[in-house]
């Protein structure tokens, strides 16, 4: 009986240790586009490791120039361990209504043409190729994106955080014989991104009116966290 008890304690200790090293992986919620495809919005939310505070952030991006709309991102964190995640998300949603209505985004969510969550181990985290719309046989050229990490260890504020990286995102133009188009390349790491260690492509969302008109590439950003690696989300958008 004592042996069984000690075995159970050992298992419980190992389980607690695994939870303690879980880190904070933000959930991704794709909100959608405006009716003309001019704005793309998404939400990330979760419980902050270390503090236990619930947070919810909403991002509204102009797809014509890949820039945030005025007054965004919307960031909510409730500095109370008893506060609920639902309460944080509700506050973020209410603030977001002043920018683009939830109803318009929900009516124009678009298509998740590709998805590669951070738990996926078999897919290439730095390359994705999708048929942008669920039409078979396809009427669109494939969309291919490739992500390269760029070493930026000279970032002074991140000196104690190990290897620090920015990123470069390319689109491969199939119709032009595989030529590449640069969509984004970090020259410096914005403060809002913290001290990123790595990146992976998490999803591709497309939007169509009469034809394919806009896209968003969702990228998971890995950082050092209090209890393990943290993941947050950013997006690179464009028109077609």
TrEMBL record:
Keywords: Signal
A Pfam family of this chain: DUF2259
Signal sequence, renumbered to the chain: 1-22
Keyword hit for Signal: yes
Name of the molecule in the record: Putative secreted protein
Species assigned in the record: Mesorhizobium australicum (strain HAMBI 3006 / LMG 24608 / WSM2073)
């Amino acid at each position: 009986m004592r042996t069984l008890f000690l075995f159970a304690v050992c298992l419980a200790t190992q389980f607690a240790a695994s939870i303690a090293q879980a880190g904070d992986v933000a959930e991704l919620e794709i909100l959608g586009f405006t009716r003309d495809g001019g704005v793309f919005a998404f939400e990330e939310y979760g419980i902050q490791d270390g503090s236990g505070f619930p947070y919810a952030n909403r991002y509204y991006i102009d797809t014509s120039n890949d820039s945030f709309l005025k007054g965004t991102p919307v960031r909510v964190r409730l500095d109370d361990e008893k506060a609920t995640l639902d309460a944080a998300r509700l506050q973020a949603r209410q603030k977001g209504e002043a920018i683009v209505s939830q109803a318009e985004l929900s009516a124009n969510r678009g298509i998740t043409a590709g998805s590669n969550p951070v738990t996926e181990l078999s897919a290439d985290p730095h390359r994705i190729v999708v048929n942008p719309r669920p039409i078979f046989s396809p009427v669109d050229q494939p969309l291919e994106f490739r992500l390269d990490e760029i070493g930026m260890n000279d970032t002074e504020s991140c000196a104690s955080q190990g290897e620090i990286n920015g990123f470069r995102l390319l689109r491969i133009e199939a119709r032009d014989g595989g030529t590449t188009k640069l969509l984004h390349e970090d020259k410096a790491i914005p403060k809002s991104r913290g001290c990123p260690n790595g990146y992976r492509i998490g999803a591709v969302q497309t939007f169509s009116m009469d034809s394919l008109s806009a896209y968003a590439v969702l990228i998971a950003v890995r950082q050092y966290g209090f209890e393990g690696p943290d993941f947050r989300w950013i997006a690179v958008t464009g028109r077609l």
